[in-house]
Design a protein that fits this description.
The chain is α+β, with helices and mostly antiparallel strands. The protein folds into 2 domains: 1-31; 43-173, Lipocalin. Helix content is 16%, strand content 39%. It is built from 1 helix and 8 strands. The chain has one helix spanning 2-29, and strands spanning 43-52, 64-74, 77-87, 96-104, 108-113, 116-123, 136-141, 167-173. The protein has an 8-stranded antiparallel barrel. Strand 3 and strand 4 form a beta hairpin. The N and C termini lie far apart (77 Å).
Length: 175
């Protein structure tokens, strides 16, 4: 009889653990999901990535570069491809980036680039570059940039090979 009691206790303990874990899984599953994208989760955008070592868009520096940018997404996932176009050399260690969480709305594009959240704001009238990038989605930041030169959310450290104190500006044009 003692062996049978131990077996019953072990079965009861295992059942309690399984049911308890099931309760946790169920409770976790019932958590509300993040707000769904109210815009498009797909698209093709062309543009550029501009880099300036000076930490602002127009400062004198020993290094500037421009990359052609192509973003392609479907169902919120895709890729950003950067191809060196002009400047003082290609410092990027990586030119193809995984994109997830892509959502394009009227006023902004939100995406996650290799685990880093980026927001590009819709810029109807570009005052930084005298209108050259009007009607673009733009994210720009640098440690020495003026407040009107900082748009959206982006950091140089998201692009392997660039120093953290560089100015970066990602510009994407809608289809």
């Amino acid at each position: 009889m003692p062996v049978r009691i131990k077996t019953i206790h072990i079965v009861v303990i295992i059942a309690a653990i399984v049911l308890g874990a099931g309760g946790w899984v169920w409770a976790f599953y019932e958590l509300p999901e993040p707000e769904a994208c109210k815009g498009q989760t797909y698209g093709y955008y062309e543009g550029s990535l501009y880099v300036n070592e000076a930490g602002n868009p127009k400062g004198d520096s020993n290094y500037t570069a421009t990359y052609i940018a192509n973003l392609t997404t479907m169902n919120g996932v895709g890729a950003l491809l950067l191809m060196y176009d002009s400047g003082d050399g290609d410092q990027l260690a990586q030119h193809a980036f995984n994109v997830s969480g892509f959502c394009a709305e009227e006023d902004a594009i939100r995406l996650t680039l290799e685990g880093n959240d980026i927001t590009l704001d819709w810029i109807a009238e570009d005052l930084v570059w005298e209108g050259n990038y009007s009607n673009h989605f733009i994210a720009s930041r640098g440690p020495d940039a003026d407040s009107e030169e900082v748009r959206g959310s982006i950091f140089a450290r998201y692009f392997s090979g660039l120093a953290e104190d560089y100015y970066v500006e990602l510009r994407l044009q809608p289809p």
